[in-house]
Specification:
The protein is an alpha/beta fold. Helix content is 40%, strand content 14%. It is globular and about 65 Å long. The protein binds pyridoxal-5'-phosphate. Pyridoxal-5'-phosphate (PLP) is lined by residues 69-71, 74, 97, 99, 145, 149, 174, 176-177, 197, 208, 323.
């Protein structure tokens, strides 16, 4: 049996998405900026996708800029607003994805910018009161992720955004993991900039977007050149990718983001593991979490050896450090939640999708206990 429980790393492209984007690798190949009929066909496809995305967020088509990835979108907002401010103060959370955290640290090192990394509690939540205290007169940006990729914690974006709004500071949110898993109404939420990525919601890889709320300054361009994306991002648009993104967003809202199904599967998985294996801890257990994500700590074992043993049984999961490709440093997210180095080493992320099944969860619950028992018997930890 092959089981894919690593959907926060990337997802299988939905068949409906493949069907929607294929023509744009074939007969519809024009450059969307060209004035002839070939170009117009591509431009129309871009507009349809932009409308699908805008509908998803309850936003305007003019508020959406397509980018080459979620990482690019994060970099565009942080670097572009830092370039605009030239100096001042930024605030992030310590559990951001490296696309935000490393970018913010890079900017603080290279420019005349001070960086505050807020504390999070043991469930990974940022306290709006602490955010309020951290904002200074020269704060030009707050960037706090909507939902965490490793442990699934969903922040109270309304409360955080209200604090920013009252202080007159723009709020950026990396919503790469949230989009497609929960409703996000940008006409109501006090969010100024948002980043998303298609491949996390059964869309294609290499396409992302930045939302820029009306009447707010766009970041200074990251990519200069032609007049694409209303001059916000130069580069001939990835029409097939963007068409796939639009379709993926449309699909994700069907059936209420598959929320009930995912929560039922996730609960089955968590209960099966926690009750069947001693010395296991569910991370962020008290917070609202993404419906598809469970992060469990296995005491006295290296997460990498669990990943390898499960892979041998056909089951794909990941450790917290998997994102930092090949890094054996324990996850900065688990550490920021207050766990020590040893606990963080044994962290495994299980991330499900709409295609996951009860049989797959039961297969994992059957295969995992003997693996843990064997690894603990030979562990030096
Ligand atoms: C929270 C978060 N932000 C940003 C990214 C980067 O997105 P992309 O792979 O599209 O660059 C990821 C991907 O792992 C993510 O989980």
């Amino acid at each position: 049996m092959k089981v894919y429980f690593d959907n926060n790393a990337t997802t299988q492209v939905a068949p409906e998405v493949i069907e929607a984007l294929l023509p744009y690798y074939g007969q519809v190949f024009g450059n969307a900026s060209s004035f002839h009929q070939f170009g117009k066909a591509s431009a129309e496809a871009l507009l349809t996708a932009r409308e699908q995305v805008a509908r998803f967020f309850n936003a305007d088509v003019g508020e959406i800029v397509f980018t080459g990835s979620g990482s690019e979108s994060d970099n565009y907002v942080l670097k572009g607003l830092a370039a605009r401010a030239e100096e001042g103060h930024m605030i992030v959370s310590p559990i951001e994805h490296p696309a935000v955290l490393r970018t913010a640290r890079y900017l603080a090192k290279k420019l005349n910018i001070e960086l505050t990394e807020l504390r999070v509690d043991s469930d990974g939540l940022v306290d709006p009161d602490e955010l309020k205290k951290a904002i200074r007169p020269d704060t030009f940006l707050v960037s706090i992720m909507f939902a965490n990729n490793e442990v699934g914690t969903v922040q109270d974006m309304n409360a955080l955004g209200t604090v920013c709004q009252e202080a007159g500071v723009p709020l950026h949110t990396d919503a790469v993991q949230a989009v497609g898993k929960l409703p996000i109404n940008l006409s109501e939420l006090p969010i100024t900039y948002l980043s998303a990525s298609a491949h996390k919601l059964h869309g294609p890889k290499g396409v992302g977007l930045t939302y820029i709320k009306r009447k707010n300054k766009p970041p200074i361009n990251l990519i200069h050149g032609g007049h694409h994306e209303k001059r916000r991002r130069a580069s001939t648009e990835n029409v097939s990718g963007i068409v796939g993104f639009g379709k993926a967003m449309e699909l994700s809202t069907a059936d209420n983001y598959h929320r009930e199904k995912l929560i039922a599967l996730r609960t089955r998985l968590e209960e099966g593991i926690l009750s069947g294996i001693p010395k296991t801890t569910l991370v962020a257990a008290n917070a609202e979490r993404l419906s598809n994500t469970a992060n469990i700590l296995f005491a006295n074992i290296e997460g990498e050896s669990i990943v390898m043993s499960l892979d041998f049984e056909g089951i794909a999961v990941s450790t917290g450090s998997a994102c930092s490709s090949g890094s054996l440093e324990p996850s900065h997210v688990i550490r920021a939640l207050g766990y020590d180095h040893g606990d963080a080493n044994g962290s495994i992320r299980f991330s499900l999708s709409r295609y996951s099944t009860e049989e797959e969860v039961d297969y994992l619950i059957e295969k995992l206990p003997p693996i843990i028992k064997r690894l603990r018997s030979i562990s030096a930890l």
